[in-house]
Amino acid sequence: MMAVVEGVVPVTPAYWEEACKHLVKKDRVMRKLIPKFGDACLQTRGDAFVTLARSIVGQQISVPSAQKVWERFAALPRKITPANVLRLKVDDMRAAGLSARKVEYLVDLALHFDNGALHVANWAEMPDDEIVDELVAIRGIGRWTAEMFLIFHMMRPNVLPLDDPGLITGISQSYFSGDVVSRSDAREVAAAWAPYCSVATWYIWRSLDPVPVEY
Predict the structure, then answer these.
(1) Ranges for the HhH-GPD domain (predicted)?
(2) What are phi and psi of 184, to 5 degrees?
(3) CB 28 within 8 A of CB 59
């Protein structure tokens, strides 16, 4: 799980209010769910490289453990940038608590940013799928991480992360009385959410855990 970046003022998407109005009008579950959470909404903070680096550090370990490893890793360079990460010694990164595989992933991430393989400056104008394609080419980043990046960093409004177990569980509980649902079932439910699937997904997550996640 990606974690918050401290000391950075979070940003809220401009479309949030419009999206909520749309969802309340189009979807019976959203009509009941959205008012429960008042002014709470999706927020983003940090920069692209740090967000993705934290996602790699946090893979397959608990949030508290990930935070500890991240703090030790982040203390190695003066600032977490692709160029600075590439200057780090492998032994120092391992000593911070990173596995050999995660070191490889972080180096590959830094290389992609440093050598221009990623069109970061163009991401704002690029379609979601093209950004996902660029990100999943990086070792250690799969489609789920790429879609979380689209939602929480890029704040794209219409991402439907069907690989996310929380989304599937929430749809099962809110729309199918707890019955097991397929990706096809979930996609059918989400047809009413477009073009604000990211917002509906955020509220489905809130139905399971009232505390918002920030990445």
Answers:
(1) 57-209
(2) -65, -40
(3) no
CATH number (1.20.1530.20, 2.60.120.10, 1.10.340.30, 3.30.365.10) of 48-152 reads 1.10.340.30
**CA distance to 146, 182, 189, 210, per residue, from 109 (Å):** 13, 33, 35, 32
State the amino acid at position 57 in one-letter form: V
The two structure tokens encoding residue 26: 């189009």
> pLDDT (tens digit, 9 = 90+) per residue, 39-78?
888 887 678 999 899 889 988 888 788 889 999 999 999 9
Contact by Cβ (8 Å): 1, 63: yes
What letter represents residue 211's amino acid? V
pTM: 0.85
